[in-house]
Queue: 2 jobs
Job 1
Amino acid sequence: MAAGLPLSLLYVWSSMNGHPFGNTLHSVCYFISVYPLGFAYAAGLCLLYLKWKEGSVWKWLAAPGRMALTNYIGQSVIGMFLFYGIGLGWGSTIGLLQTEVIVLAVFLFQMLFSRLWLSGFKFGPLEWIWRMLTYGKRLAIR
């Protein structure tokens, strides 16, 4: 966090001021700021988990994790429909705040869908197909 946050702020400042140090240094700043900050976020989540293992938040986050392939493909399809011209085409017409609200709503929907699906099945639908193709035999989904 100590390295990633200041470098990310420098990257943002550079973006807002027309890349005063040039495109190469701007890209390098991005590259060396993203990874430490991402690792710090992941470490922070791990520390929160170690402190509050029994929290209901983790149960809600576990369901989309168990259906990661289904949710990943689902996000791609929903995003294409909402933001690209093959659907509603909102990508160039809405701002960052509206985009973030839509993204949060899609993820909350996927969390709910994942919990409901996994209450009746062992795997997500695409995970089930993936396992059948991997093992070469039909598996019970329930």
Job 2
Amino acid sequence: MKAYEFPTQLTAEGKIELPNQILQHLSQNQQLKVIIMVSEDSESDEAWHRLASEQLLKGYSEEDAIYDTI
């Protein structure tokens, strides 16, 4: 499994924009799992990374949990 972290926004049509850097790593019609995390003003980047490592990637081995920040 690979996990990509990137900033994005919701379009007026209600769609999530994927950066071209991410699209280059994906095959057409590839099935994805998406977790949406919404930032609150008081949260820092450190808190986000801690949450991801402690909760979202819990149970995966290091070999399975490749975490790329784009």
